[in-house]
Amino acid sequence: MNNIVEDQNQCPAESLLKQLSGKWKPQIFRIAVTGPVRFNSLLRQLEGSSKQAIATALKEMEEQSLIEKTVIQLKPLHIEYTLSEKGKSLIPVFKQLEHLA
Amino acid sequence: MNNIVEDQNQCPAESLLKQLSGKWKPQIFRIAVTGPVRFNSLLRQLEGSSKQAIATALKEMEEQSLIEKTVIQLKPLHIEYTLSEKGKSLIPVFKQLEHLA
DNA sequence: TCAATTAGTCAAAAAAAATTGACCACCGAA
DNA sequence: TTCGGTGGTCAATTTTTTTTGACTAATTGA
């Protein structure tokens, strides 16, 4: 997924485009725009998805620093995923895409 | 690549994002912004690409109506690919992405 | 006539992405 | 103590995407 050395991107948009590519990432992003997001909640909202699908998407988005994972509580386990600053900076791009579509 | 029936997209940005996904499409798009583009010229510009790679990307972008194929001349064969209106409408999105990157 | 350029196609193989289904551990409520 | 919810992991398989390399066919310039 990630190329750091091999990508000497002549095309700046490309890397951001790649970070949002994948079957579930755009939908997760869109839901995350509205507020913090939880694993099992996503699983229920995204019909046709699976634990694995969600887990992979969240992990990659976290690695790309699009979202941040926060342990809210341990005792009854409660984890939240939130858009990072970088993630938030992509909101206008999404808005523009939605405007076009 | 295309889902028409199965995609009842809740996520409008998603389909446009998918149309620009693929290893070579963003780069081809970016070059096409600067003017009409030819097959072998792309092949030379995009290091690491191949005829097949370029052909597939161009074909899909044409199917998605992002670019238009025009036969300029037959006798010495000359074909050009140009951004369509839909393609041009994505330029601001690209600009925004480049601005962020 | 030979070489290069134009713009491709086709099939096979390799690599990457997505799906499927089993498994885990912990907590809380009934 | 069993059931449902929390948030995952792992391995195997399937599907999709990308790569590789051979092949085509017409035209132009030397």
UniProtKB/TrEMBL annotation, chains A, B:
Listed transmembrane segments: none
Gene3D superfamilies xref list: Winged helix-like DNA-binding domain superfamily/Winged helix DNA-binding domain (1.10.10.10)
Endpoints of the signal sequence: none
A Pfam family matched in the record: HxlR
Keywords: DNA-binding, Transcription, Transcription regulation
PROSITE patterns in UniProt: HTH_HXLR
The HTH hxlR-type domain, residue ranges: 11-101
InterPro entries assigned to the protein according to its UniProt record, in alphabetical order: HTH_HxlR, WH-like_DNA-bd_sf, WH_DNA-bd_sf
Protein name: HTH hxlR-type domain-containing protein
UniProt source species: Ravibacter arvi
